[in-house]
Design brief:
Length: 536
C-alpha cells in the first residue's frame, strides 16, 4: 500500500466526514474564516491537482519541495503527488537563505511550490530550480518519470533533520513508513484508543517534522478521523480553539504544558468530557501531574525519531505511566533493544545507557527511514552492528518501563526544533571577533532548552554586552531565528582535548554553571519569530 491507497479507502468509507479542518484563527491572513474539507471534497481536489501535475510530466522518481506552511493545501498537494509517485520535501518557511539554498540543492527537487510571501526569497536561494505558486506554472522536469507505479518502497517524502555534522541530513521516508505509522497509531489502545470515524486530532506542530507530517496525519487518515491543523501554537487562544474545533486528541510539545499551566485557572479548565488524551514528548516532570489534574486528561509521553518512525517507537499508553518521571513506556514484542555504555558494552540493569533499536523479525529496518540521502556512510554508521544507534540515553526500570535521561548527540532541542551545535558554531566562527567557540544546550523553563554560546574572543575585543549583541545579530542574519544563541558567555579558553577537539561534556557543565551564576549575556528577547503578528 501507499499513502494514496489509505486515503482512497477512508474516503470511500467516510465520504462526508471532515478530513481536515483549519480553524479561523489559524487561517487568519489568507482566508475569511475556517477551512474544512470533507473526505469527498478532498478527494475531488486531490484528483484535480493530480491531473495538473501529471500534465506537466511529474511522476515516479521525482521530488517536489513544498513551502506551504501548515495549511490544508499542503496535505492535498502531498496526496496528489503521492498518487503519481512523487516525493515531497517539506520546507520550513522560517529557514534562512543559506539553509534554503542547501536544502533545495541537496534534495534534488525538480521544483519548489511556495506561498506568495516566500516566492522572492526562495527564488533568490533556488538558483536554476523553478519556484512557482501553482502546478500550472511548472516547467516539465529535466528528467522523465520512471516507468512503473508507486509501491510500499517508493519514497513518499524526504524530511531534513539536524545531525552532528552541521548540515541537516535528508531522511528518505517510504510509503511503508507512512502507512505503518497510521496502522501503529490505530492499534495503540490503552490511553490512546481511537474510535474509527469519530476522532478530531488538533496539532500546532510544523509539517516539516515527522510528527505532523506522518504521525498525526496518518493516524487520522487510517481511521477516517479529522486532522485539525493549526498554523502554530497560540497560548492565549489555545483552549478556545480546542473547544471550538471539538478536538478529541491533542498533540503537544513539552513547552506547551508549561505555558498553559501559567495561565490563571478558569472554571471550565476541565476538558475530560471532550479530550481523550494528549500525545507528545518532553513534558517537564514538575508539570506532568499538575496538568493532568487541572485539565482532566492524560498527557501520554512517547519516544521516536524521524529515522525510526514507528519501527521502534515507545509510548506510555498503558498503566503504570509513571507520571512525572520522564517515562516513555515499555517495549512491545515488535521492538528489540539494547542499552550500552560509551564503550559499547551492555549496561547493568537500571543503569542509563544509549538506546539501540531495531524491528523484531526478519527485517530489522521495517518502518524505519530508508536512509540518509546522498550519505550512505552515515546511514551505515547509524546502523552499525545491525542496530540503529539513537544517541539517546535512557534507563529501564524493574517493570520494563523506559525513562528518558539525556541525548548523547550534540543536539539542542528548543521548542521542538532540533539544532545542531556545530552548525551554529560554524556561523559564529565567521565573525571577526570570535577566535573559538562552543555551543551547548542550557535549560529553559518554557522552551525546554536554549542555545548558549561560549566564545573565546580575539585580542583587543571587549567582552561586553555590545560585542555579545553584535555577534548575536551576525548569527541571526545567517541562521533561522530559533538557532541563534539565546545566551552568550565569554571565556578565556575552551575545554579541549590534546588534539584540540572540544570536550563536549565539560562545555555543557561550563554552560550550565555560567547560567546558574548569571555570568552570561541574556539575549533571548532578541530572538523574534519573523512575521509575528502579535505578542502572546
Amino acid at each position: 500500500m501507499w499513502v494514496m491507497d489509505e486515503f482512497e479507502q477512508s474516503a470511500a468509507r467516510h465520504p462526508d466526514r471532515p478530513f481536515i479542518h483549519v480553524p479561523e484563527r489559524a487561517a487568519r491572513g489568507y482566508a475569511e474564516g475556517p477551512i474544512e474539507f470533507s473526505y469527498r471534497q478532498a478527494r475531488a481536489r486531490v484528483d484535480e491537482l493530480k491531473a495538473r501535475y501529471a500534465s506537466k510530466g511529474y511522476g515516479l522518481g521525482h521530488r517536489l519541495a513544498l513551502m506551504l506552511d501548515n495549511r490544508a493545501e499542503f496535505f492535498l498537494h502531498l496526496l496528489a503527488l503521492n498518487a503519481l509517485g512523487v516525493s515531497v520535501v517539506p520546507v520550513h518557511g522560517e529557514l534562512s537563505g543559506k539553509d534554503l539554498e542547501f536544502l533545495i540543492s541537496h534534495s534534488g527537487a525538480a521544483a519548489v511550490l511556495a506561498l506568495d510571501d516566500y516566492l522572492a526569497r526562495v527564488r533568490a536561494a533556488a538558483g536554476t530550480v523553478p519556484v512557482v505558486r501553482d502546478p500550472t506554472e511548472l516547467p516539465r522536469p529535466a528528467n522523465p518519470a520512471a516507468d512503473g507505479v508507486p509501491d510500499a518502497a517508493t519514497e513518499a517524502a524526504m524530511v531534513y533533520t539536524s545531525g552532528t555534522t552541521g548540515q541537516p541530513k535528508g531522511c528518505m521516508l517510504s510509503n511503508a513508513y507512512f502507512v505503518g505509522f497510521g496502522s501503529w497509531y490505530r492499534n495503540l489502545g490503552g490511553a490512546c484508543a481511537l474510535e474509527p470515524g469519530a476522532e478530531r486530532l488538533i496539532t500546532p506542530l510544523p509539517v516539516n517534522h515527522m510528527n505532523a507530517l506522518a504521525c498525526s496525519f496518518m493516524a487520522m487518515l487510517a481511521t477516517g478521523g479529522c486532522l485539525v491543523q493549526l498554523d502554530r501554537f497560540h497560548p492565549s487562544a489555545w483552549w478556545a480553539t480546542v473547544r471550538e474545533s471539538e478536538a478529541t486528541i491533542i498533540h503537544y510539545l513539552g513547552v506547551m504544558p508549561a505555558m498553559l499551566l501559567g495561565a490563571a485557572p478558569r472554571a471550565d479548565d476541565d476538558l475530560s468530557g471532550q479530550v481523550k488524551f494528549g500525545f507528545g514528548a518532553g513534558v517537564d516532570p514538575r508539570h506532568h501531574g499538575a496538568f493532568e489534574e487541572r485539565f482532566g486528561f492524560p498527557l501520554v509521553e512517547a519516544w521516536a525519531m524521524t529515522e525510526t518512525g514507528c519501527g521502534a517507537a515507545l509510548v506510555a499508553n498503558h498503566e503504570p505511566r509513571h507520571v512525572g518521571a520522564r517515562c516513555i513506556g515499555r517495549a512491545t514484542p515488535e521492538l528489540e533493544y539494547r542499552l550500552i555504555d560509551e564503550q559499547g558494552a551492555e549496561v547493568v540493569a537500571g543503569t542509563p545507557g544509549e538506546l539501540l533499536v531495531r524491528h523484531a523479525g526478519p527485517d530489522p529496518r521495517r518502518f524505519f527511514f530508508s536512509g540518509y540521502y546522498r550519505d550512505e556512510a552515515a546511514t551505515e554508521a547509524a546502523w552499525a552492528g545491525g542496530w540503529f544507534h539513537t544517541g539517546d540515553v535512557v534507563r529501564q526500570g524493574s517493570d520494563g518501563s523506559f525513562y528518558f535521561v539525556d541525548r548523547r548527540k550534540n543536539i539542542i532541542r528548543r521548542s521542538g526544533e532540533n539544532i545542531a551545535a556545530v552548525e551554529v558554531e560554524g556561523v559564529l566562527l565567521n565573525h571577526p571577533a570570535v577566535a573559538q567557540c562552543a555551543v551547548a544546550p542550557v535549560p529553559d523553563e518554557i522552551r525546554g532548552e536554549e542555545v548558549m554560546a561560549l566564545i573565546q574572543l580575539n585580542p583587543a575585543t571587549a567582552a561586553d554586552r555590545r560585542t555579545a549583541t553584535e555577534i548575536f545579530a551576525f548569527a541571526r542574519r545567517e541562521l533561522a531565528y530559533y538557532k541563534a544563541p539565546g545566551y552568550v558567555a565569554f571565556v578565556g579558553a575552551l575545554p579541549v582535548t590534546s588534539s584540540q577537539k572540544i570536550r563536549r561534556g565539560e562545555v555543557k557543565r561550563l554552560a550550565a554553571q555560567r547560567l546558574d551564576e548569571g555570568d552570561c549575556f541574556d539575549l533571548r528577547d532578541h530572538k523574534r519569530r519573523p512575521r509575528l503578528a502579535e505578542a502572546e
